[in-house]
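Researcher: Go.
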Amino acid sequence: MFEFVTGKITAFAGTLSVNDAIVTVYPLFLFVIGMIIYAVFVFKFYRFIGGKNVFTPIDKSAKWTRKLLHSLEYVFFYPIIAFFWFLVMSVLLSILSQTVAIGNLFMASMATVVTIRILSYYSEELSREVAKLVPLALLGLMLLDITRISISAPFTVIMNLPASAHTLFYYFVFLVVAEFGLRLLYFVGRKK
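Model: Structure:
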């Protein structure tokens, strides 16, 4: 019995090769690296976009000009950053989309970003949970059915950006107005 087991182990070991190991493990290695990069991205994304105060809070004793400049950061600078996240979210959704309907993809991505921003004023914890929900759900879908991944879809989204310029502009204005309204309500609510 012992000789039989050692014979099988020796025969199996004789069929192993370094080249086969490299060919087998290399895709796994790339997959692990991709998941690490994606997880770090999701972590940075949800912590950044899910917070109510993205920039360093200003103390109450600051001059009114400093308070005004601080508010303008949220009204102008932050929407540009949030719009970037919207574009990234659109690309992520397109990777898993079997049929790329650009208009629907953009609407779903912008709705997600604006919802996260609105929720951040209600509850930062809830906002961060929603912010990580979509990217982690996308990761879960990818793990369950890797055949759904479309490598060409992000390029389709990028190629359609000029054709969707009006829609993207309206979405950006909507994002600016929403952020301005949220900040205004926040400051009015704080004073009361």
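Model: The mean pLDDT is 81.
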